[in-house]
Backbone:
C-alpha cells in the first residue's frame, strides 16, 4: 500500500469517485457526520456525493429536518441524519460540555443560567408559529433578565444544542433559524454507550477509510480511551495496511477499478476528504498544506486531481452564472481550461447556473 493508494480508496469510500446513494439523509448517515460551519459549502459537500442533486434538494432536506445541522463533534457545526442525532448527542455532548467549563466560568455562565435559558428557549419556540433567529431568541432571553452579549449568546445556543433542545430551523430568506429538536427529529430507540461508540467507529472507518486510530480520535473528538475502545469493538470488520509507523484501517468491500482517466473534483471548503484526518499527507503534500488550510482551522475549497490536492478555487456568484477562479500550487499542477470547465459542470448544475472559468 502507498499513500497514493490510500487517497484513491478514500475517493471511493467517501462517495466521490462513485456513489451508491440517492437520498441526502442516507448519504449523510453513511458518512456519520459532515462538517458544516460554511452552510453553502456544506450543501455542496453533500451534493457532490449525490450526482444530479441540486442545492434546492439539499436545502429542502435541511428545511424538512431529515438532515440536522447542529454542533455535534470537536465541537463545530456538522450535518447529521435525523435518525442518528439522538445517539450521537448522547455520546458526544457530555465530553463537549465538560471541555467548555473553563470558558463558561470566564463568561460567568453557570448551570443555573443554562437551565433557565434552555427553559426560556424551549417555551418560546414551542409557542411560536415559526422558527426563530438567534437575535429573536436573544431578545426573549433579555426579557428573562439573562445577561446577553456577543460571547454569551454563542455559548447559550451552543449549550441548548448539546442539551438536545434546539437544532437548525428552516432558512428564513438568508437567515439561519433555530427550531426545537423534538419537532424536527423523532426520538429513536435508545442504545447503550458501548453500542453508540461501536456504531460511530464503524461509520467512520467504512466511509473515511483508510484511516488511522489517531484520525478517528481527531474526527470524533472523543476522549482517547473511548476512541480506542470504540475501534477495538469493530476492528474485526476491517483490514489494515501499514506505511512506515502508520497503520491504516479500511473496509475491503469496495473494489477500486484501474482507470487511466484523470479524475478532477472541485471540493468545498471544510470537505471531509481533507478535514476528517489528523494526518493529511496522503492527499496533500506537506509543503502545500498551509495554502489549503490555515493554522486557525480555515479550510479552503480545493482542487483534487486523482486524489491529490493540487490547488484551491474560489467562486463568485453573479446574476446568471457562477465564476470559478482556480489557483494551483505549482505551474506543473495547472489544468487546461477545458478540463476545468468539465470539472465545474456538476457545481453549476447543482446551483442551476452556468459556470465560467477565470484563469489567472
Residues:
Amino acid at each position: 500500500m502507498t499513500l497514493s493508494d490510500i487517497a484513491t480508496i478514500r475517493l471511493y469510500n467517501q462517495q466521490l469517485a462513485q456513489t451508491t446513494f440517492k437520498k441526502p439523509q442516507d448519504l449523510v448517515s453513511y458518512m456519520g457526520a459532515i462538517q458544516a460551519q460554511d452552510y453553502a459549502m456544506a450543501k455542496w459537500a453533500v451534493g457532490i456525493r449525490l450526482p444530479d442533486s441540486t442545492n434546492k434538494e439539499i436545502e429542502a432536506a435541511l428545511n424538512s429536518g431529515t438532515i440536522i445541522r447542529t454542533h455535534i463533534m470537536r465541537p463545530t457545526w456538522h450535518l447529521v441524519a435525523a435518525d442518528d442525532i439522538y445517539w450521537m448527542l448522547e455520546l458526544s455532548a457530555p465530553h463537549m460540555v465538560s471541555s467548555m467549563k473553563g470558558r463558561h466560568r470566564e463568561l460567568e455562565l453557570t448551570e443555573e443560567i443554562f437551565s433557565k435559558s434552555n427553559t426560556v428557549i424551549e417555551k418560546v419556540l414551542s409557542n411560536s408559529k415559526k422558527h426563530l433567529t438567534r437575535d429573536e431568541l436573544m431578545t426573549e432571553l433579555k426579557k428573562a433578565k439573562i445577561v446577553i452579549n456577543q460571547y454569551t449568546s454563542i455559548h447559550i445556543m451552543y449549550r441548548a444544542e448539546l442539551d438536545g433542545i434546539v437544532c437548525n430551523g428552516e432558512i428564513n430568506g438568508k437567515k439561519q433559524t433555530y427550531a426545537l429538536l423534538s419537532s424536527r427529529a423523532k426520538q429513536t430507540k435508545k442504545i447503550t454507550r458501548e453500542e453508540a461508540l461501536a456504531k460511530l467507529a464503524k461509520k467512520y472507518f467504512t466511509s473515511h477509510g483508510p484511516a488511522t486510530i489517531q484520525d478517528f480520535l481527531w474526527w470524533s473528538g472523543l476522549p482517547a480511551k473511548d476512541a480506542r475502545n470504540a475501534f477495538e469493538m469493530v476492528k474485526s470488520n476491517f483490514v489494515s495496511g501499514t506505511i512506515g509507523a502508520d497503520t491504516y484501517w479500511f473496509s475491503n468491500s469496495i473494489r477500486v477499478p484501474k482507470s487511466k482517466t484523470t479524475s478532477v473534483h472541485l471540493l468545498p471548503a471544510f470537505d471531509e476528504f481533507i478535514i476528517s484526518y489528523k494526518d493529511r499527507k496522503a492527499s496533500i503534500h506537506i509543503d502545500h498544506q498551509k495554502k489549503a488550510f490555515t493554522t486557525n482551522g480555515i479550510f479552503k475549497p480545493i482542487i483534487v486531481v486523482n486524489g491529490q490536492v493540487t490547488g484551491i478555487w474560489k467562486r463568485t456568484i453573479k446574476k446568471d452564472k457562477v465564476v470559478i477562479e482556480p489557483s494551483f500550487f505549482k505551474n506543473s499542477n495547472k489544468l487546461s481550461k477545458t478540463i476545468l470547465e468539465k470539472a465545474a459542470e456538476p457545481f453549476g448544475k447543482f446551483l442551476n447556473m452556468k459556470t465560467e472559468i477565470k484563469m489567472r
Residues 8 and 353 are 30 Å apart (CA to CA). The chain has a mean pLDDT of 95.
